[in-house]
């Protein structure tokens, strides 16, 4: 769940006239523009309001994130929900995933939808290697994120054992909306505004870090205020 | 399903035709099964398939169960179906474990029931039971070079400890 | 049809098989005797990653030009060790494992397992539970056939059917979400009945679905039934004789399309199937077109069954009252000590099934789905084996496709309706 929402770009002031006077000023400026009479500062401001300037990298990231073509990679049950996401009700085409490319050479996103068996792992690695940079991997569902409910000899306990995974999507199977949420998160990540993980967002430590107990004497009793700690230090952190 | 007396009749007729083929029968929950000597599999299945009046011509399933520590260790089950009378009959071949790393052997019934091809490969893959006379006995679901017979009871289930606090000892500091 | 291009482009080498993962070189079999020259044979790997293989099925195909001369399916790429995991979990926890096997017909997997455990403990489920189970099973059958139609038509090139099929499928999933809380893998069936009764709006929504679905089916049939391209692709393709199918152990729509009137819902009715009036569609020739027609008609028959079940839905408990195996209702936990103890024992340890073995088979959308359980008296099953229909039906692929074109091979795989989760378990 999002705590903060980031706007991708500021809405241009041109979109929102604030008062009738402002509108009149704009009309006069537009008339002058048409008569080729805008100059100097006026012209500069006019251009600023209408032309978006950015760095090449940001433009490139924006283009890449909004046109990610997934590879057809359905492994198991999550594949059906992935196909459902492509369907008419949850439509991924509006987010840029216009087609699912069969050839890995033409795809830039690999959605590992389903459990990864040990026989399939080298095949996935080969497909991943054949994809061209830039490429991203989504581990869809519990099985590809961590082995899921199958803690046995036949399932690789998490696809990130052999491919680098960008986004893990929980669920068994995740709803198509959950998968879309994951894709949108990946888009924001590519655009350079990654969503914060919960540790940064809540400035918190988890039970796993807590289990590595700090030496006695450094613990102060919990006063009931929100803990204000940074990431766990070399001694394991603790409530201060 | 042939009822309990019908099952006994079948067992009797089989033992008349083939000495000592059927060692016992059991009838529970409305289903009957014959327990046979694994060396006589082809005789029994052939008789059940071809004898007019029996005609169990459809093999629904061929599977195996590991009864360790009970003896004999493996039970290869054949689920037969007679479509005309809609009757199911189970045949269980009680296959002992030869020990010392040797693989138990049973005759393959692919000549009688061609559907058994994939089923027998699966039993071989998971239990290591070799079917003599199978056209293409190799692993079907595990990778071809896998070692071990996964569904045997003494094969460990595998997997990794899940990342909970009480497994901390085994997976320390995974977040770093 | 871009099948042959993508087959080569899936990244595997196309030599005589030495480089393929886990494959021995192709042996000379009888099928290859008639090939003109050995140099003209070309072994192609339609890898596990292929858009047309309905999951991770690997086919090693030996081609002479475009004609399939030899075919070997290699499976196991989504083998999950479900049967082994089942031995390690209590009976109640086995239900989600078994569900995820044949992942389009999850209710059927649950029914096979719950049915066999109910047989082992001789538990009779209440009538309302039987009817609810039938409703959900038939809805699942409709759902499975819709997805089949969608993916098959993509393989054949009629891509619009994908959108239509998934549009209807989402309606069925809405119904599942209403009754069970989840779209797929609902864990709705429990030993003794169903987990929860249906909520208040379910019947109305189901009736509206039943009202509009036949007209939708008419639309689909209008597109496909007499479509020249569809007929050319599917007519007289992939024919296997009825006797050969019985020898190979094929069941389900494939067998019925070949002309054998065998449907477990009719011949050995379990649950409440005996109460309903429905027909079994049978084909005549056994080609791809017959299989398509059989499945479309089965959707209609399933709609009829659901309607009859809904009309005749009896009142009563939705799960059996046997406290040794079934959780007590939650409101009793506050008042009754025994209920609390039962709940505790069932949740922590699970119920113990007396020693025995049983095999129970039902008719899933793909054929006979059987479940074999060995119980040893403890809370965990000693062996769970599922006889999956797709696993057995796959054996007919070779016979269907030999001496046909590669494009027909794609179509045969599609008409076979394999679900790799069931094949690989």
Description:
The complex is a heterotrimer of chains A (240), B (176) and C (425). The longest helix of chain A has 15 residues, at 20-34. In chain A, 36% of the residues lie in helices and 6% in strands. Chain A has 9 helices and 4 strands. Chain A is elongated, with a radius of gyration of 25 Å. Chain A has 240 residues and is an alpha/beta fold. A 4-stranded parallel sheet of chain A has the order 1-2-3-4. Chain A folds into 3 domains: 13-53, no CATH class; 68-190, 3-Layer(aba) Sandwich (Rossmann fold), CATH 3.40.50.12280; 199-219 and 226-240, no CATH class. Chain B has 176 residues and is of the alpha/beta class. Chain B has a single domain, classed as Beta Polymerase, domain 2 (2-Layer Sandwich), CATH 3.30.460. Chain B has helices spanning 4-17, 41-50, 116-127; strands spanning 22-28, 31-36, 58-66, 74-82, 87-95, 105-107, 130-132. Chain B is elongated, with a radius of gyration of 20 Å. The mean pLDDT of chain B is 85. Chain C is mainly alpha-helical and 425 residues long. Chain C folds into 2 domains: 3-74, no CATH class; 124-319 and 390-420, Cytochrome-c3 Hydrogenase, chain B. In chain C, 46% of the residues lie in helices and 11% in strands. Chain C has helices at residues 3-8, 82-86, 91-99, 106-121, 127-156, 160-180, 202-224, 228-234, 242-248, 253-257, 264-267, 288-311, 337-348, 389-393, 397-401, 406-416, 420-424, and strands at residues 41-46, 58-64, 67-74, 189-190, 193-194, 356-364, 367-375, 383-387. Chain C has a 3-stranded antiparallel sheet. Chain C has a 3-stranded antiparallel sheet with strand order 6-7-8. In chain C, α7 packs antiparallel against α12 (288-311). Chains in contact: A-B, A-C, B-C. Chain A binds chain B through residues 118-119, 146-147, 150-155, 157, 206-209, 211-212, and chain B through 142-143, 150, 155-160, 162-163, 165, 168, 172-175.
């Amino acid at each position: 769940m999002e705590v903060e929402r980031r706007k991708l770009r500021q809405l241009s002031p041109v979109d929102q006239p604030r008062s009738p006077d402002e509108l009149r000023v704009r009309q006069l400026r537009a008339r002058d523009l048409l008569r080729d009479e805008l100059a100097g500062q006026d012209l500069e401001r006019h251009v600023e309001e209408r032309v978006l300037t950015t760095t090449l990298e940001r433009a490139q990231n924006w283009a890449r994130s909004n046109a990610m073509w997934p590879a057809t990679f359905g492994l198991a049950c999550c594949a059906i929900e992935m196909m459902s996401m492509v369907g008419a009700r949850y439509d991924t085409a509006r987010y840029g995933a216009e087609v699912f490319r069969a050839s890995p050479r033409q795809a830039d996103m690999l959605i590992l939808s389903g459990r990864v068996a040990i026989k399939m792992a080298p095949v996935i690695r080969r497909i991943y290697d054949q994809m061209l940079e830039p490429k991203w991997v989504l581990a869809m569902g519990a099985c590809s994120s961590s082995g899921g409910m199958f803690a046995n000899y036949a399932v690789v306990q998490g696809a990130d054992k052999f491919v680098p995974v960008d986004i893990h999507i929980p669920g068994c199977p995740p709803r198509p909306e959950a998968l879309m949420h994951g894709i949108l998160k990946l888009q924001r990540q590519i655009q350079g505004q990654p969503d914060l993980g919960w540790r940064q967002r809540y400035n918190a430590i988890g039970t796993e870090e807590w289990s590595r107990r700090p030496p006695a004497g450094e613990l102060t009793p919990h006063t009931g205020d929100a803990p204000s700690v940074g990431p766990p230090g070399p001694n394991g952190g603790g409530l201060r | 399903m042939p009822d309990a007396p019908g099952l006994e009749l079948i067992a009797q007729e089989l033992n008349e035709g083939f000495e000592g083929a059927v060692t016992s029968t059991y009838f529970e929950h409305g289903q009957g099964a014959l327990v046979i000597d694994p060396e006589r599999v082809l005789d029994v299945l052939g008789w059940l398939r071809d004898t007019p009046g029996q005609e169990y011509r459809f093999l629904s399933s061929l599977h195996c169960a590991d009864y360790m520590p009970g003896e004999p260790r493996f039970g290869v089950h054949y689920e037969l179906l007679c479509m005309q009378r809609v009757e199911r009959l189970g045949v269980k071949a009680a296959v002992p474990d030869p020990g010392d790393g040797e693989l138990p052997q049973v005759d393959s019934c692919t000549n009688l029931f061609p559907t058994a091809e994939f089923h027998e490969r699966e039993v071989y893959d998971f239990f290591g039971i070799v079917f003599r006379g199978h056209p293409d006995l190799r692993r079907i679901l595990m990778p071809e070079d896998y070692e071990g017979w996964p569904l045997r009871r003494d094969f460990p289930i595998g997997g990794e400890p899940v990342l909970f606090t009480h497994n901390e000892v085994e997976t320390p500091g995974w977040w770093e | 049809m871009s099948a042959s291009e993508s087959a080569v482009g899936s990244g595997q080498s196309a030599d005589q098989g030495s480089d393929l993962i886990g494959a021995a070189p192709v042996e000379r079999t009888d099928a290859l005797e008639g090939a003109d020259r050995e140099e003209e044979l070309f072994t192609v790997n339609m890898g596990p990653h292929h858009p047309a293989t309905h999951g991770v099925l690997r086919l090693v195909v030996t081609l002479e030009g475009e004609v399939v001369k030899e075919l070997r399916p290699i499976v196991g790429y989504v083998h999950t060790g479900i049967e082994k995991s089942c031995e390690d979990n209590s009976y109640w926890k086995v239900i989600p494992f078994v569900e995820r096997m044949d992942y389009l017909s999850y209710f059927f997997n649950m029914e096979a397992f719950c049915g066999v455990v109910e047989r082992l403990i001789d538990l009779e489920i209440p009538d309302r539970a039987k009817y609810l189970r039938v409703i959900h099973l038939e809805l699942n059958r409709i759902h499975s056939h819709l997805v089949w139609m969608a993916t098959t038509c993509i393989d054949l090139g009629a891509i619009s059917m994908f959108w239509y099929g998934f549009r209807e499928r989402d309606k069925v999933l809405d119904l599942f979400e209403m009754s069970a809380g989840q779209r797929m893998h609902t864990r709705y069936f429990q030993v003794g009945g169903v987990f929860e009764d249906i909520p208040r709006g379910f019947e109305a929504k189901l009736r509206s679905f039943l009202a509009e679905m036949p007209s939708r089916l008419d639309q689909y049939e209008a597109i496909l039934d007499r479509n020249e391209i569809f007929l050319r692709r599917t007519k007289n393709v992939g024919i296997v004789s009825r006797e050969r199918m019985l020898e190979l152990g094929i069941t389900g729509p494939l067998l019925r399309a070949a002309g054998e009137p065998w449907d477990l819902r009719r011949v050995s009715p379990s649950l409440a199937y005996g109460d309903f009036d429905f027909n079994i569609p049978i084909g005549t020739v056994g080609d791809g077109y017959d299989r398509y027609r059989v499945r479309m008609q089965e959707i209609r028959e399933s709609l009829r069954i659901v309607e009859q079940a809904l009309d005749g839905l009896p009142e009563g408990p939705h799960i059996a009252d046997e406290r040794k195996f079934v959780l007590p209702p939650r409101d009793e936990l506050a008042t009754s000590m025994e209920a609390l103890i039962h709940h505790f024992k069932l949740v922590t340890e699970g119920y113990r099934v007396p020693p025995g073995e049983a095999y129970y088979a039902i008719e899933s959308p793909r054929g006979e789905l059987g479940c074999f359980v060995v119980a040893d008296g403890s809370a965990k099953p000693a062996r769970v084996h599922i006889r999956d229909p797709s696993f057995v039906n796959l054996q007919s692929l070779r016979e269907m496709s030999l001496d046909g074109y590669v494009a027909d091979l794609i179509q045969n795989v599609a008409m076979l309706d394999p679900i790799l989760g069931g094949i690989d378990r």
